[in-house]
Design brief:
It is built from 13 helices and 13 strands. The chain is globular and about 60 Å long.
Length: 367
C-alpha cells in the first residue's frame, strides 16, 4: 500500500479563523496525512524582511479597544506571541508534537506545506521545514492584501518576487481574487475556503418580537471590515430614525455558540472593503439569515441582488437605504430568508468546498 502524502497546514493562532480552515480540511478531505502548526509557536527572534511589514494579527494590538485590555483578544494574542518569543530566545520553549497547539512530523519532512497566509514564513521561523512543494494563501480581496502593513508603492511584481517566489500555487479565499492576482503570479491560482457543519448551522424558528435584530461576528479590530467606521454608525442612524433595530455582536466563540447566535438574528450587515470571506457570511447564510453586503468575497459569488440578499455601496447612506427597504418591505426580507441557505450550499457548501480542496492538493502534488 502506498504511503499517504504528508501535508503541513500552517495558521496563525489556535482557535482563530485559519485554525477553522485547518479543521475543515482535516475533517473533510480524505487520502492525505495532515499535520498542522501555528506561527505563534515559532516567532522569529531577530530576523527582519526587506518590505518592513508588520503583522497586525500577532504583534500589533489595536489602539481602538484598550479600555479593558483582557477583553481584547488581540492584546492577549500579542502577549502570547511575545511570551513564546522570549521562551524561544532563552531556549526554554518546547511543544508536544501532537496536541491542540500543533501536530507535526518528528523529521519535519512533508510532501507539501501550505502557509494559509502569504507572509507566514517571514513572520515566523519555519526554516526547519523540508517540503518540495509550497502553497501560499491570500484571504483578503485587495492589493496589497489588507491586514498587513506594507511599505507604500509596493507593486504586484515586487510583491510576487518577495512573498510568492518559489511558490507552486496560490490559494485565494474568493473567486474574484483569482483575477486580481493572475497577471502578476504565473503559477496556478486556486479558490478554496471552508464551510461550517451544515447540521449545526441550521435555521431555527424565532420568537415573535417587536425589534429587528442585525448581527455581526468576527474581529472588529481589522479596519477593512468596517465595524467601527460603518457598522456601528449605520445602526445608530437607523435607531435615530426611529426604526426598531437591535444590534448584537460576537467577537469570538465556539462554533456552537456562533450557530446559536445567528439562529436568533434577522439580518447580517457586511461592510468589508477587502475580505475574501467573511466567515460571518458563511455562518449567517447557513442559518437562513440574509445579508446586506458590500460586493466583496463570498457574498459577491452567492448573492443575487433582491433574490437571496442585497448589495450595498460602502457608504452610510446606501447601507441605510438598503436596510430601510427591508424594514419597510417585510415580504422582501422573507424572500431573502427563504432563498439564502439553499443558494449558499449549492455554491459554497461542504461538498463544493471539499471538491475545491481535493482539486488543489491533487494538482500541486501531481504536477
Amino acid at each position: 500500500m502506498s504511503q499517504k502524502k504528508r501535508i503541513l497546514l500552517i495558521g496563525d493562532t489556535p482557535g482563530w479563523a485559519f485554525h477553522r480552515i485547518i479543521e475543515f480540511i482535516q475533517n473533510n478531505i480524505p487520502g492525505y496525512d495532515f499535520f498542522f502548526d501555528f506561527t505563534v509557536n515559532h516567532p522569529r527572534t531577530g530576523a527582519s524582511v526587506s518590505s518592513d511589514f508588520v503583522s497586525r494579527g500577532t504583534v500589533s494590538p489595536s489602539p481602538v479597544r484598550t479600555k479593558w485590555p483582557f477583553q481584547n483578544m488581540y492584546i492577549l494574542r500579542g502577549l502570547v506571541y511575545r511570551t513564546v518569543k522570549f521562551l524561544h530566545w532563552i531556549g526554554l520553549s518546547k511543544f508536544d508534537e501532537n496536541g491542540f497547539v500543533r501536530k507535526i512530523a518528528s523529521d519535519n519532512c512533508y510532501d507539501l506545506v501550505v502557509y494559509l497566509d502569504y507572509y507566514m514564513d517571514k513572520d515566523a521561523d519555519f526554516d526547519h521545514i523540508k517540503a518540495p512543494k509550497v502553497i501560499k494563501g491570500i484571504f483578503t480581496e485587495q492589493f496589497p492584501p489588507a491586514g498587513v502593513i506594507h511599505k507604500t508603492g509596493l507593486t504586484p511584481k515586487v510583491f510576487v518576487e518577495e512573498f510568492l517566489n518559489g511558490c507552486n500555487a496560490l490559494l485565494v479565499g474568493s473567486p474574484s481574487s483569482v483575477k486580481l492576482y493572475s497577471k502578476a503570479f504565473k503559477q496556478p491560482i486556486f479558490f478554496a475556503n471552508l464551510c461550517y457543519d451544515e447540521f449545526l448551522f441550521v435555521p431555527k424558528m424565532k420568537k415573535k418580537r417587536q425589534s429587528f435584530v442585525i448581527g455581526w461576528t468576527g474581529n472588529p479590530d481589522r479596519e477593512f471590515k468596517g465595524f467601527y467606521s460603518h457598522v456601528l454608525p449605520t445602526i445608530k442612524a437607523l435607531q435615530a430614525a426611529g426604526y426598531p433595530v437591535e444590534f448584537r455582536s460576537q467577537f469570538a466563540g465556539s462554533l456552537s455558540s456562533l450557530a446559536t447566535f445567528w439562529q436568533d438574528i434577522d439580518l447580517a450587515l457586511i461592510t468589508s472593503e477587502a475580505d475574501a470571506g467573511p466567515s460571518m457570511f458563511i455562518e449567517a447564510s447557513l442559518c437562513g439569515v440574509p445579508s446586506v453586503s458590500t460586493k466583496i468575497g463570498l457574498p459577491s459569488f452567492v448573492i443575487e441582488d433582491g433574490v437571496n440578499g442585497l448589495f450595498c455601496e460602502r457608504r452610510l447612506d446606501d447601507m441605510l437605504l438598503k436596510i430601510q427597504r427591508l424594514l419597510d418591505e417585510p415580504e422582501l426580507h422573507q424572500r431573502l430568508k427563504t432563498n439564502i441557505r439553499a443558494s449558499f450550499i449549492k455554491e459554497l457548501g461542504v461538498e463544493a468546498q471539499k471538491k475545491r480542496w481535493d482539486k488543489l492538493f491533487n494538482a500541486v502534488l501531481n504536477e
